[in-house]
Design goal:
The complex is a heterodimer of chains A (402) and B (88). Chain A is built from 14 helices and 14 strands. Chain A has 402 residues and is of the alpha/beta class. Chain A is globular and about 65 Å long. The model of chain A has no long low-confidence stretch (mean pLDDT 97). With 88 residues, chain B is mostly helical. Classes of the chains: A alpha/beta (402), B mainly alpha (88).
């Protein structure tokens, strides 16, 4: 099996419009969550989110592109441009034929859906823009990335709710590992912070009205975010031969299904995914120094996740660090695992563990070291990234320092 | 009037639990009736729609909400209060 390394990363999210700004915010424990600035916000009872601010589509795309690119596609392309520029790759010839793009998203073009439903239902219009379908489809972002970078190999979109990005990156990892592709762009994107998107989440009554406080006894729910992160996954010998700067190595991946409940998580399903990724990577529990938690800030997730980590790691659970950066950038749903992988790479490469901010009260059911409120310097060799989706679909990645 | 709030609430709970109205007693807990967290959120939605009220309920930690869901009786009392507040 071939080795897989990461040679480029890009992002736009509530913490920053690129990787350096995002990592700086994570190091400083800055919160990107604030009052939502969206149409009809006064009709929402949940009015906060990790919104991308100071963003003007016209600064990056022309009029024809904006007519075709939903906000989730725009975010994806900006993240992909940053990642590909860092990797220093140009796709032509055989490399172009065999390389592809696998991205995660849950809702796809939610803003496009919202705007056009409003137009036909609320405003009573009987005609919509001709590009509604190509703009809203879940695979629009992956397709536009393939077009912009000339990626002609395996390309598709994965939708597994909150685990979409981790599932996508797991597919990219295995495509390279098995020799099917030399390079894959992968990660995910979400832009659900529109009236209909937030209203739907309100209905479930798991959203916080004030803050995302994972693992803190006084947490009261999740907060939605938006944005994208994209990575260049590359076959190790290919990266080495061209002298690429290697950010980290992807060494393991596992996915499991709870097969039990459409919203409530299962400790066994989560634990099987975590131990599966470690087995895939050939790791002993003691090797893992940091876990980027799913850590949504709901009681159901946080208690189940902590219990699963204790089950898998035994005594080592008290020695490793586990933090949830959702406290800063919010829950990007289908894009969340991608933005969280940035924190994993920062831990390996810079020796900085991103904190769980908003942590106020210890919870006897979450007693792990959650790196509360302030980033920490630590030398870690191996990290895991957890994602546990509604529908009971779990995906965990393992990364190692190179 | 108070009787009808109670009857309506019990009707909604019975429907959610797939039980006859007569099988829902005031001292039943939701667990007794086989209503799980999703069923509870759905019941609250139905109650809000039936009475046009807002029920203060966070599914993350039902026990710490100001809305007491420990039994059918406490739910009925809470809804009666919310309906009365709305009329006031």
């Amino acid at each position: 099996m071939k080795r897989v390394v990461i040679t480029g990363q890009g992002t736009i999210n509530a913490l920053g419009h690129n990787v350096p700004d995002t990592l700086e915010a994570m190091r400083e424990g800055r919160c990107g969550i604030g009052e939502l600035d969206i149409r009809d916000v006064e009709r929402l009872s949940i009015r906060i989110g990790g919104q991308v601010r100071g963003y003007t589509a016209e600064d990056h795309f022309n009029r024809q592109q904006i007519a075709l690119f939903d906000r989730f596609t725009q975010f994806t392309l900006l993240a992909a441009r940053e990642a590909v520029a860092q990797a220093g790759l140009a796709f032509s010839g055989e490399l172009s034929q065999r390389s592809g793009v696998v991205l995660g998203t849950s809702g796809g073009g939610m803003n496009t859906l919202d705007e056009n439903y409003r137009s036909v239902y609320e405003e009573g219009k009987n005609r919509v823009h001709p590009f509604v379908v190509p703009k809203l489809m879940n695979n629009a972002a992956a397709s536009h990335v393939s077009m912009e970078f000339n990626l002609r190999g395996p390309s598709f979109t994965v939708a597994t709710a909150c685990a979409s990005s981790n599932h996508a990156m797991g597919q990219a990892f295995n495509l390279i590992r098995s020799g099917m592709a030399p390079v894959m762009l992968t990660g995910g994107s979400e832009s659900m912070l529109c009236f209909g998107g937030v209203k739907a989440w309100e209905g479930l009554r798991v959203m916080s009205k004030d803050a995302c406080r994972p693992f803190s006894a006084n947490r009261n729910g999740m907060v939605q975010g938006e944005g994208a992160a994209v990575f260049v996954f590359e076959e190790y010998e290919h990266a080495k031969a061209r002298g690429a700067d290697i950010l980290a190595e992807v060494i393991g991946f596992a996915m499991t299904s709870d097969a039990s409940d459409i919203v409530m998580p299962s400790k066994q399903g989560a634990a099987r995914a975590i131990s599966g990724a470690m087995r895939d990577a050939g790791l002993s529990p003691e090797a893992v120094g940091y876990i980027n938690a799913h850590g949504t800030g709901t009681a159901a997730n946080d208690k189940t996740e902590c219990a699963a980590v204790v089950d898998v790691f035994g005594a080592h659970a008290d020695r490793l660090m586990i933090s949830s950066t959702k406290s800063m950038h919010g829950h990007l749903i289908g894009g969340t695992g991608a933005v969280e992988l940035l924190a994993c790479i920062m831990a390996l490469r810079d020796g900085v563990i991103a904190p769980t901010i908003g942590y106020e009260e210890p919870d006897p059911e979450c007693t792990l070291d959650v790196v509360p409120n302030e980033a920490r310097e630590a030398d870690v060799d191996v990290v895991l990234s957890n994602a546990f989706a509604f529908g009971g679909l779990n995906a965990v990645l393992a990364l190692r320092k190179v | 009037m108070s009787q009808s709030v109670k009857d309506k609430v019990i009707g909604i709970i019975a429907e959610q639990a797939v039980l006859e109205v007569g099988d829902v007693s005031m001292d039943s807990t939701l667990e007794d009736l086989g209503i799980d967290s999703l069923g509870l959120v759905e019941s609250i939605f139905a109650i809000e729609e039936a009475f046009d009220i807002q029920v203060p309920f966070n599914a993350n930690d039902p026990s710490s909400s100001e809305f007491d869901i420990s039994s059918v009786a406490t739910i009925v009392t809470a809804i009666e209060g919310l309906v009365a507040d709305q009329k006031a």
